[in-house]
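In this section we walk through a basic example: taking a raw amino acid sequence and producing a predicted 3D structure, encoded as discrete structure tokens. The instruction is simple. Fold the sequence below.
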Amino acid sequence: MSQSPSNTNYSSSGGAGGTSRLVEGSRLTGDLHIPGLVELLGHVDGNVSADSILIEERGTVTGGLNAASVTIRGKFDGRIEAVAVKLQSTAAVSGEIIYGTLSIESGAMIDAVCKVRAGA
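The resulting token sequence is shown next.
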């Protein structure tokens, strides 16, 4: 994992964590708890908790995501729990999505149970 600045428009709700990146070609097994934004370009088997999570087109995650904001461009299989979930046109998602707001672009592949968060 490396810390590096990002030119994307994804902001963390915590503000103090900066951006962490799992680079393409990396594999991680286990749970991640990261302040700020985490960009996933590699593969994660486990649970990821952060202020904001971005799975890039070549990124894959099998497990769970918990964040204020989740954006998926790559592949995900498992459980997402977030205030705001955005599935972009290149996303392939299966499992369960628990959300406050859900945005799905045309072309996204989804095989998931979607539920609105209590109190959303």
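Looking at the output, two observations stand out. The radius of gyration is 13 Å. Confidence is low (pLDDT under 50) at residues 1-14. In the next section we compare this with other chains.
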